[in-house]
Amino acid sequence: MDLFSPAFGLLFWMTVVFVVVFVILWKWGFPVIVNMVNNRKTYIDDSLRKAHEANERLANIQKEGESILQEARDKQAVILKEAAATRDAIVAKAQEKAREEGNRMLNEAKAEIENQKKAAISDIRKQVATLSVMISEKILREKLNTDKTQMDYIDRMLDEVSSSNNK
């Protein structure tokens, strides 16, 4: 039963020890604990504020990133349009140059064909003249194989020349 009804001396010393411990804690323990709790609260508040600022900065950076990305897309579209226009101009210029070159080559080919045609006609005329002379020579040799026929032929030619001069 001593457990439920402690002696007065025990209660007195327990109270003295409690008050001494309480005063020691009050004087040196609680200020340190309160100071630590306040420091922890300040650290947490600062961390929350910094986290909030970091979130705001991150949101701003994301907005800036999106605007830069959109600007890059716009520039890319402009560059692609310019490249397409340049490509079309180059293709058109190349087609025009090809047409001019084709026309020039066609004209040169026509001129070459005309020159070849004239040369062929000239060559044919020379061959015809040569053949005509050769054929005439053979015919004259056959007709003029005797001296009498040669003299008759010469007389006839002279008469024709004389009669054409008199006219």
How would you describe this protein?
This protein is mainly α. The protein has 2 helices and no strands.
How is this fold's topology laid out?
Blueprint lengths: L7 H136 L3 H20 L1
Structural key phrases:
single chain; 167 residues; mainly alpha; 2 helices; rod-shaped
The beta-strand count equals 0
Q: Which structural class is indicated by helix and strand composition?
A: mainly alpha
**Helical stretch count?**
2
Mean pLDDT figure? 89
Please compute the radius of gyration using only Cα atoms.
65 Å
H/E element sequence: HH
Strand content: under 5%
Euclidean distance between termini CA atoms: 189 Å
- Overall morphology: rod-shaped
Query: What low-confidence regions span 5 or more consecutive residues with pLDDT below 50?
Result: none
Helix content: over 70%
User: How would you sum up the major sheet?
Assistant: none
